[in-house]
Amino acid sequence: MNKLVLNPDKRIKLTIDFIKLNFDIKQLLQGKINVNQITIDRPEIKPMPIEEKSFNSPLNNYFSNITQDLKKIFVFLPDHQSSVEIRFKNAISQYFKQMDGSVYLSKKNKEIILNTIIKKIKFKPSSLSKTVFEKYPELDYIELDQLKVFTTINLNGEIKGRCTFIKPKLYSKNKNILLRSNLIKSSFKLAEEGCKLVITPFKLNHPEGIVGIQFENNYTKKKSSLRFTGTDIHIDPARQMSLRLFKDNEIVTKIFQIVRKGIVPKVAVSFHGKDFKDLFKGNHLRLKGNIKNGSVVIPATDITASEVNGNVNIRNGILDIKTTKAIIQNSRLEKASLSIDLLNYKNVPFQGEFSLDLDLSLLPETLISLLPETLLAQELSLVHNVEGQSKAALTLLMEPDSTLLGVKINAENFSARGYYDRIPGNISIGNVNFKYETNQVSLQHLNADINGNKIYDSNMLVNFENDAWIKIQSGSGLIDLATSIPWLNSYEKTRKIISPVKMGNGKVNIDSISLSGPVLKPELWEYELAGKSHRINITTRENQKQIEDLSCQYHLSRDLFYLKNIQAKISHLSWIGQLIAKKHLDSILVPFDMENGYFQLGTAASFLKTELKFPSGPKVHINLQGKTPASFALSTIKILDETISDASISFNHSKDKLLFDFQGMLNTISLEKVITQDSFWAKKINDITKGQSILIHTDNDSNLNIITKTMDLNSFFSQPPTASFDNRLLKDKIIYFKADQLKIKKFTFTNIDSQLFLSDNPSHIKLDKAFLCDLELSGNINFKKDSLYADIPFKTDFKDNIQDLFTCLLKKHNFMDGQYSLSGHIKSNNIKKEYLNKLNGDLILNAEKGRIYKLTLLSRILSVLNISKIFKGKIPDIRQNGFAYAKISLEADIKDSIIYLTKAIIDGQDMTLIFSGWIDPVKDTLDLTCLVAPFKTIDLIIEKIPILNTILNGRLVSVPVKATGTLFDPIVVPLHPSAVGEGLITMMSDILKTPVKLWDKIYGE
């Protein structure tokens, strides 16, 4: 039969070139039609376009229909015929090039046997069923060289058989091969109770590996399973294939996001469910296998483990990876476990524990990637050039629905080298137990070298949750000042702490340390350090030696800082320039040694106690006390200088106590040994001592004795008083003062022997003896509050030349000469500010056998006489030869610093002058009345002016004058006789021993 068109069902249109029927001749001769073979040649199979419907009917109905259809087929066979064979050859369709085979029906066995070979197969799966293959959009088409099928169908509806796929290939949309193999063999069975498919393990060319598949679905037991077995699977191509074919499968997607590369030597993957519909749910997947040279990406991180060797398990949506070997960047992973929840959460919760042989060069950037936007990450960004290898345990934890990755690191015997931008120079850490957990770093038994600074066996805790917080609980160390001081000065806050130190060298040992507080806020630290230094050098200026060879023990805490057993060489004092004026510092002789020092700053007490040893010999012990160094004041000072000084001075700055107490012996020579020549204090001392020594010592009663050859107080009195001591100088003590010479302003006192009593009742000076310009002085001076009480007697007897007194006392030269005696006393009883204006007392002066050379008052009196015609030319000129006198007698009372003359006589060689009135030296004024007897005898008048003798009728003449104005520029005028008191006239008569006549003619002239 030729050119037949058949429609076996609605889905297929079959066009056949011809059909050949082979009849059994023997049976035919017996009158029986027995077609034992049917041959179909060149059939063409075309699918019919029909609307695709989902398959929803129960599978047992499906097999029931098959059974009924088979029975119908067997009905067509005559009773005498037990079998028939249908052969087909050269079948073609749009899916393949050729199909050859046969269908054998056996009534005896009640089965149908299909045996066929299909060649050159190529088709798009979606053309068969869009519903089935719409889940695999990346699958474009399938190719096979051959498909061999052997199938049997029995009347029970059971279908079973074998399939052989020769050179199958699966292609993606972009024509890439998804799967390729040379040969795949399988067996299958479909029955009413279920179905089963077994693909014998076969070699995959792409992706590489050996794969076996077993599928079973039991309807009666309500069990469905799909099992894959594989060996030597190459993950990368398998990953590419799976992500295309199973991209909607959540677990497959996540698995291959995690597992990227490598080889799977052996793996078993299975899905278990109640039926086929829910078989591929994520929690139904089970996987057990291993991985070799794999690449695993740790979720929620940028960390990829390469060369992974280990075991992989998936159960209930949990992926467990246990490795025995891997590499993370340059770090070797010795052992690890990674447990990942592939289902149920928006994120991918996981927990990983990794034992690493850690390459530390990539540690900072790894931790930054694990802990982005954290304070620790910010600090780690400043770390670079890290070198080292260390064993470490890393734990990563991602909680369900969390965005924060939990990181734990534990490394014992951690050692590393590198740089940290906040600290200059290289940092080396060794043998430390390192732990990190939840923004907290713990370093136990830390040994480190930080740019030459050592740390030994320290326990440190750093918290990075908010502000970085550090806590150091124990340990010791060694600080290299050459590197640490520049570093500390690079930060404003620490620069304030160590100010004014700029440079230094040497080592400082830290014996113990305890510290806690915010890392970047050292002013808030709580700390306690103790240790010692040995021969360190410190300076506040470049190229200037200041403190050298400093050795000490120290203790430093927030409330207490002390240095004890201080030994040092002080080469320059500019480092305390902010506390002490430069002129004072420059006066101290350097270098000197500081020995046995003790410096303390604390809330309870602050002080500096030390011994200063000068190369010139003296040792100075000082004790400074105060709340801060800026407020330090001397408490005690002790000066030791062999054989000449051993003195101690104690100071008290409380106003209700003594200012100081002196004990021992002090010679100013010792002071000069510790002071720089030509310095401020050298000049000050020299101004006072004039190069002579002053000896100060205490006696058995603790009274002070001051003995000196020369003392000049002019520099002291030239400065205004800077403080009031309120009787706090050696209260209730006696100061014995002896001096060969004492200069106060213009006066020089000699041979002084005095006592100073400093007390409240009141303080006073007892002057046993002193000399001022040949005047012997004595008396008392009392100081009481603002008042000055004084009574100073003075005298000098029978001195050769009164000019010495004027030269010494008044700095008047060539004034007068002659022998003299002077006595009197000065009293004061008034406030200190007014005492010069309120002096009282008296004085007596007697001089003889001399001559007056300079006295303006006398010159002007004589000038007045020379005006008169009668005396003109007869009066001596004081400017040429002076005024010769036989005797001068002066007696006066002093009241309110005004000198009131009670007796004043100048008995000249040729004339006599007597005075009355007053002189005020403070205000530089005078008011005197003077009687001048130009000629002491009648004979002298007769000799000089004979006519005058006739006029006077044998009496002596006396001329009255008046002197007013200033002491050194007086106004002298003639005075009318009526203005002269009887007392002066009588005194003149007594002196001249003859009656006198007051000359009134000169007044008219």
Structural summary, described in words:
The chain is of the alpha+beta class. Among the domains are: 1-173, no CATH class; 855-1004, no CATH class. The chain is 16% helix and 55% strand. The chain contains 21 helices and 55 strands. The chain has a 6-stranded antiparallel β-barrel with strand order 7-8-11-12-10-9. Strand 45 (775-784) and strand 46 (787-799) form a beta hairpin. Helix 18 (938-944) crosses helix 19. The longest helix has 17 residues, at 59-75. The protein is rod-shaped and about 225 Å long.
Fraction of residues in helix: 10-25%
| Biggest sheet character | 6 strands, antiparallel, barrel
* Spatial separation of the terminal alpha carbons: 198 Å
* Helix count from the secondary structure assignment: 21
Spans of at least 5 consecutive residues whose pLDDT stays below 50 are 722-726, 937-955
By DSSP, the count of extended strands is 55
Strand order of the largest sheet: 7-8-11-12-10-9
Derived from helix and strand composition plus strand pairing, the structural class reads alpha+beta
Work out the strand percent. Answer: over 45%
Keywords:
single chain, 1005 residues, alpha+beta, 55 strands
In a few lines, what is going on in this structure?
This protein has 21 helices and 55 strands. It has 1005 residues and is α+β, with helices and mostly antiparallel strands. A 6-stranded antiparallel barrel has the order 7-8-11-12-10-9.
Note the topology.
Layout (H helix, E strand, L loop, with lengths): L1 E8 L2 E12 L1 H5 L5 E13 L11 H17 L7 E11 L4 E9 L4 E13 L1 H4 L1 H4 L5 E16 L4 E8 L2 E4 L4 E5 L1 E9 L2 E13 L1 E11 L4 E9 L1 E2 H11 L4 H9 E6 L2 E7 L11 E13 L6 E12 L2 E11 L2 E11 L8 E10 L3 H8 L4 H6 L2 E5 L1 E10 L6 E16 L2 E15 L2 E11 L2 E11 L5 E12 H9 L2 H7 L4 E16 L7 E14 L7 E11 L2 E11 L11 H4 L6 E11 L4 E7 L5 E7 L7 E9 L3 E7 L8 E8 H6 L6 H10 L4 E5 L5 E9 L1 H4 L15 E12 L2 E12 L4 E10 L2 E10 L2 E13 L2 H9 L5 E16 L8 E13 L3 H12 L10 H4 L1 E13 L2 E11 L3 E9 L4 E9 L4 H7 L1 H7 L3 E10 L4 E5 L7 H11 L3 E3 L2 H4 L1
Parallel strand pairs: 3-4, 41-42, 53-55
Antiparallel strand pairs: 1-2, 2-3, 4-5, 5-6, 6-7, 7-8, 7-9, 8-11, 9-10, 10-12, 11-12, 12-13, 13-14, 14-17, 15-16, 16-18, 17-18, 18-19, 19-20, 20-21, 21-22, 22-24, 23-25, 24-25, 25-26, 26-27, 27-28, 28-29, 29-30, 30-31, 31-32, 32-33, 33-34, 34-35, 35-36, 36-37, 37-38, 38-39, 39-40, 40-41, ...
